[in-house]
Amino acid sequence: MRMLYLHKPSADILARFVEQQGKLDFNYFAVGATAATPPSGYTVDRTRIELGNGEEVFDAAKLALLNWQQFSLGWVDVWSAETPLEVGQVVAIMGQAVGLWWLNACRIVYTIDESGPIRSFGFAYGTLPGHVESGEERFLVEWDQSSDRVTYEILAFSKPNHILTRLGYPLVRRSQKRFGRDSATSMYRAVNEAPGIPEVYQNTELMSQVPG
Length: 212
Known about the structure:
Radius of gyration: 17 Å
Strand content: 35-45%
Helix content: 10-25%
Largest sheet: 9 strands, antiparallel
Order of helices and strands: EHEHEEEEEEHHE
Structural class: alpha+beta
Low-confidence stretches: 208-212
């Protein structure tokens, strides 16, 4: 099934895409590695923003993730936003670039819901063959009760999985960075009524290939 469209794919196209991709395995080997150490040979991106303070902000951030609001960006969208955060669930991620809509498939690898001095909630999904990249991405909100601060973080490792993403990798990298910033902004707006956005922290590292 094709992955590039002149217009945003319809619900029928997306439903067929998700059904077909759901029958396939991941297109990378280090499934679940965002919970530990990203594998060698991938570019690793980290994005982090402080959302506010207290349990109310944490609960609002949890609800935002449950509703996939980190993808409510206009130029990026998810189908379906009603997909529950459960291991094995498959979603279609759409992104618009160079006048085209790029269609990608991901499956939820694991979920996070932890209590304690630091309360955590989130999930990670991994790429399927119908994705222009290969790798994994984790979305996490945390409430550090010692400082009362609530944060949102994205951790991803990826590398190209399509000839166009290899040829246009500088554009891909700009889009990935933009997604991190816009996703952080969307989460902040989802849990705050006050105007203004705090600084978004981003860094990138290349996990060097281990010889042999």
